[in-house]
Amino acid sequence: MPDTFKAILISRDADKKQSVAVADLTRDDLMEGDVTVAIDATTINYKDGLAITGKAPVVRRFPMVPGVDFAGTVVQSANPEWKAGDKVILNGWGTGETHLGAYAGISRVKGDWLVALPDGMSASDAMAIGTAGYTAMLSVMALERHGITPERGPVVVTGAAGGVGSVAIAILSGLGYHVIASTGRTSESDYLTGLGATEIIAREELSEPGKPLAKERWAAGIDAVGSHTLANVLAMTSYGGAVAACGLAGGMDLPSTVAPFILRGVSLIGIDSVMAPRQLRQEAWKRINAEVDHAKLSALSRTIGFDDIIAAAHDIVDGKIRGRVVVEM
Question: Is the pLDDT of residue 40 over 90?
Answer without folding.
Answer: yes
